[in-house]
Design a protein that fits this description.
75 residues, globular, alpha+beta
């Protein structure tokens, strides 16, 4: 899988999302309730999923090693 370029406008939101997800286990329903948007300019969930930063494991959504690397690479 190759990374797609995360737009600068989305990087802070994706970082917030990944930090939120890393704090404790979250269900897919929790993630969708908190982070899903219909705004095409703020596709946080979609970008995080497309880039492999998060993965669904049954009902849970987890941050991946790739997602942790994204967090570490961004101040």
């Amino acid at each position: 899988m190759t990374d797609t370029l995360v737009p600068d406008t989305l990087a802070p939101l994706i970082r917030d999302f990944l930090e939120w997800l890393a704090r404790e286990p979250r269900t897919h329903a929790d993630v969708m309730e908190s982070w899903r948007t219909s705004c095409p300019r703020l596709p946080v969930w979609e970008e995080a999923t497309d880039n492999g930063y998060v993965a669904r494991k049954g009902r849970q959504v987890e941050i991946t090693a790739r997602g942790r690397a994204f967090l570490e690479s961004r101040p």
